[in-house]
Specification:
Layout (H helix, E strand, L loop, with lengths): L2 E4 L4 H9 L5 E5 L5 H9 L3 E4 L3 H14 L3 E3 L6 H9 L5 E4 L5 H16 L4 E8 L9 H8 L6 E6 L6 E7 L4 E7 L4 H14 L5 E3 L1 H7 L2
Parallel strand pairs: 1-2, 1-3, 3-4, 4-5, 5-10, 6-7
Antiparallel strand pairs: 6-8, 8-9
């Protein structure tokens, strides 16, 4: 396996590179990489892991589709037009997208769906806290959690300090409140999830996959 890392100079890209052996990394793409170098790195890779920005992610997906290289994307902050474009490349290669690669977040999403069915007259809110350099607000994880609910939740996003990720979903009634929360202690949990997905995706046929597809396959 040879893995290319798109966004290698970023915090998540660096975390992914620390988890891989040197001979498992085919190359890294940063803001200074030319389009030719970018495509050359993709071509010599078995799979690509991307934690960058939407514009770069779409370009990476295009190169991966052109050369039929599996693509794992954890970039957040997409507008609908760019995300639809990203998904369209799955016609020619396997693409796995997740706004959060933590198994704990996936479990949280299942718990809040179950809770809403029981607490159908409760108000729902989600608070997300991340480091003060995170650009998208609300976080991609918060939008994912909100998409699992029938009722639109109230959302508060805080960008403070060096927090790697903290999400709290509350169901508040007149006389009681239930909270379901997830806190990550380091970015390693997200990088590890992306690497595991990459090794799995390398053997999958063309199509658009999610973290749920990966977890279901591992049961």
């Amino acid at each position: 396996m040879k893995i290319a890392i798109v966004g290698i100079t970023g915090r998540m890209g660096q975390e992914v590179s620390r988890l891989l052996k040197p001979n498992e990394i085919s190359g890294g793409v940063s803001s200074t990489t030319s389009d030719k170098e970018f495509e050359d790195i993709i071509k010599k890779s078995s799979v690509v892991i991307d934690f960058s920005v939407p514009k770069v992610s779409v370009k990476a997906a295009e190169f991966c589709a052109k050369h039929q290289i599996p693509f794992v994307c954890g970039t957040t902050g997409f507008v609908d037009k760019d995300f639809k474009k990203l998904k369209s490349y799955a016609d020619n290669t396997s693409i796995l997208y997740a706004s959060n690669f933590s198994i704990g977040i996936f479990l949280m999403s299942q718990l809040i769906k179950m809770s809403e069915k029981v607490l159908d007259d409760f108000d729902i809110s989600i608070i997300d806290r991340h480091h003060n350099r995170k650009k998208d607000s609300p976080s991609g994880t918060t939008l994912f959690l909100a998409s699992q609910l029938e009722k639109k939740p109230q959302i508060v996003s805080l960008r403070v300090g060096g927090i790697s990720g903290d999400h709290v979903c509350s169901f508040t009634g007149e006389d009681e409140e239930i909270t379901i929360s997830h806190r990550s202690f380091s970015r390693k949990v997200f990088a590890s999830g992306a690497v595991k997905c990459a090794f799995w995706l390398a053997s999958q046929k063309s199509g658009f996959y999610s973290l749920e597809d990966y977890l279901s396959a591992k049961k």
